[in-house]
Amino acid sequence: MKTCFFLSLFLIFSIGFAQNNHIVKTEDGRRVLLKTDFTWEYIDAEKSVTNGSAMNIPKSKESTSCNLAEDFVEPKLDKKIQAQLKKGRATISHVKKKVAKDYNCSVDDVLLLSVSEQKAKGVYHLCANGKKVAYKRIGNTIIKKEKLF
Known about the structure:
It contains four helices and seven strands.
């Protein structure tokens, strides 16, 4: 009787711990994060062009430039959080590498403007090639922050 009880208890707990987030690829090559609460989101979210004749409207340089002061210094980050993120390859250097890759520039061209960071998540506002961009980190996953409206 004890054996059946412990076996069923083990089975119930193993099912609970077996649920995890999964990353899958769609047919068109985009990566999707499937969450345990039956929701999903694109990891490398890019706005897709639905119409082949989409209009490209260039933005003025004033709206895309970062307009930093001469004595601008990047904000300091919490060393404890960065040490923990080092295990999952999600430190600020990894965020800067991802931004540099996405915007075809060097890591030195990426500047950290502001940050809101916790152990589980973080939001980073950066300047890459004169453009203000925002990236978010959920756990160890780094994605571009998109505006809904």
